[in-house]
Amino acid sequence: MLTQGPRGTKDILPGEVDAWLYVEKKIRELCERFGFQEIRTPIFEHTELFQRGIGDTTDVVEKEMYTFTDRGDRSITLRPENTAAAVRSYLQNKLYADNSLTKLFYIGSMFRYDRPQKGRYREFHQFGVEALGEQSPAVDAEIIILAVRFLQSLGLKDLELSINSVGDPKCRPVYREKLQEFFKDKLDGLCDVCRSRYDRNPMRILDCKSGECQRLSVGAPEITDCLCDECNEHFEKVKEYLTAAGISFTCDPRLVRGLDYYTKTAFEIKYSPLGAQSAVAGGGRYDGLIEEIGGNPTPAVGFAVGLERVMLALEQQKLFNAEPHKADAFIVALGEKAQSVGFKLLVELRDAGLKAAMDYAGRSMKAQMKQANKAMAHYAVILGDDEIAKNVAVLRDMESSAQTEVPMEEIIKKLTDEVKG
Length: 421
Ligand code: AMP
Description:
Helix 1 (14-34) packs antiparallel against helix 5. Strand 15 and strand 16 (403-407) form a beta hairpin. The protein is built from 15 helices and 16 strands. By secondary structure, it is α+β, with helices and mostly antiparallel strands. The structure holds adenosine monophosphate. The site of adenosine monophosphate has 15 residues, from strand 6, strand 10, strand 11 and helix 11.
């Protein structure tokens, strides 16, 4: 138990961190280009924020939150997603004050008590963006393009982008009624969850994973046939912008989000080589959320990408090769005196900006040279009693095996010139 992390969590080991840093660098470069600024919000928030901000009837809020009472008797929840938190921060810090359009991005871990499997964890990481304050369909297109470009920049091909419009509080009630009408005499065949969704949230029956529910929803009315003029026009514009940008997509009328504050555009990106957990990104417009959380009505749109799934895809497709971590210099010190001179030199080399290492265990020359090889050192700096007495060190080029004796006071300059040269 003590040597086993909690179920659904994963260590990102030193050998894996390079790939994460590479992906995070891509995110930061791309977001900079698209004009999104990073925001870092706390990992926990008041539980109510997520209840309001994600919706009481969602699986996330009903079954998956890590919620606890803190010592001050407040109900706290580890964030299961970051949109609600970003909106909370946007309102609390009045980020709308200077900009009519506020563009934020985040990278961080999220927590959901889900059934763990490959690609699904209880602690996982998302990269997400939120564009707040603008209702133009150009923003919807912009963030979809950003998500696609991000995945493409990592070398992922054959991404499947699906888009839909889920309408707005004006046209959706009509659609809900049509759906309820359609499912009315099929209720007995639906799964328990969908039966309970029938009244509260019938649109979610459409994305139920149960085979029987999927079969029964064949031929269900499609939201795109019920959109009001405004939603229809918005959707057409998004498609136009995407087409103009050369982004291929399919329209999927079953891509739904049943909550009232989700409006208009919904999208998802799949990468099918990942198998069962192939959804890598999901997002859409949420023009009703900011008001729900207590702000003035403000249009907004965003997405989140699951980074573990991105990492799995990179690994699967062998799209990332880590550069080996090579030391510039490895100090081989023989004897006590040499150890202390070597240690001082180690500190000075590092202060001079070089990657330097040494052995502290007083091992044999042979063992220390082996370590220098393991550290892939460019040079070994050999110090023994003779060298100390002469105030020199022997520099050994680990590749050519050429050795030169260098006065102590010249070592740092010589190594710096050679390495940075
Ligand atoms: P969502 O916030 O549910 O719209 O999810 C956005 C993306 O986060 C999904 O497309 C997945 O790539 C990823 N994701 C969601 N839940 C998990 C999880 N439990 N483990 C790993 N990735 C997840």
